[in-house]
Known about the structure:
By secondary structure, the chain is an alpha/beta fold. Helices cover 35% and strands 26% of the residues. A hairpin with a 2-residue loop joins strand 19 and strand 20. Helix 5 (185-201) packs across helix 9 (295-304) and helix 9 (295-304) crosses helix 10 (321-332). It is elongated. The termini are far apart.
Amino acid sequence: MYCVRKVVDDLYWVGGNDHRLALFENIHPIPRGVSYNSYLLLDEKTVLFDTVDWSICRQFLENVEHVLDGRDLDYLVINHMEPDHGASIEEILLRYPNVTIISTEKSIMLMHQFGFDVDDKTMTVKEGDSFRFGKHNIVFVEAPMVHWPEAMVSFDTTDGILFSADAFGSFGALDGKLFNDEVNFDRDWIDDARRYYTNIVGKYGPHVQALLKKASTLDIHYICPLHGPVWRNDFGYLLDKYDKWSRYEPETCGVMIAYASMYGNTESAVQVLAAKLAEKGMTNIALYDVSNTHVSYLISETFKYSHIVLASVTYNLGIYPVMHDYLMHMKALNLQKRTVGIIENGSWAPKSGSLMKEFLDEEMKQMSILNSEVNMISALNDNNANEVDNLVESILDSMKEA
Length: 402
Ligand code: FEO
């Protein structure tokens, strides 16, 4: 059965939701599911903006057929050729053989790489090109690395609609609600939106900044991303988040404590740290055991907070492997500009602290490491409890300076 929503008079959401996929890109957990958005414009010509993941192709095809209501499909605009959006192109070609695919040169190259027979069915566009489909005039704007090199966004100058590809998207299934003002985004969606952005597009902050600059020149009334809600108001909220995330600036002054503990002693130390911070009035604290928190959540929270405390036991003379994996993800996603406190533990050759500092100094950018650190031998005791006090003071002092 078709399941569509009207965006504006002649534009329909024809995408779908997937609650069965456990891991997006086979790596990121999506307990709230995910939506794959596609939009169909009914003008003098009919124009489909992107397709969907293979998993919901059948639903998608029913939706397209219903909205077309007997008309042929004239154009398929592909803003992003990653398979979660491009996988159903061949099915569209089979059902609508007269369709012309509009996309960038790199995107069309990717279609061939993925084995799609699109010869003689494509029209290449580049930055600033425009096309009139009747009442609607669409301008194509390149958006390289948001999130693949071939990506573009399309802007409908007639109604002020930005088809923004992966930009401004989110994990989470829509489940009937399409627009940002039909959900409580700040309560129910922002954590998934941040986790989506930081893990999927986080590495490409400068490219996102370039796109934001281009978008600032457009008179936008709707933002139609490929995942998550369509935005039709409150753009300032969303743009502010994107601006901060893509400049690697924290959203909030607070402390994220990520700890790796084998027998509970490092965990006990970070509980003491958290209690002392709270006692001093700093209650914006988030505490995570890296061993039982998926790294995509750790990354998302690391982008959010101004201060990070890394507390790790030493393992085989190195950083505890799960903590090391978290650090590697931070580096891969270009995270920077954080103030970091270090807590080291080890029973017979503590090394994790010096190795974590070396990693932050040598492998990452603009990470400010606090001088006060906690060096534990097996467990926190009366001899080094004052190091926790010093770390607390150091964190609070650095917040005053910021
Ligand atoms: Fe949702 Fe980069 O694909």
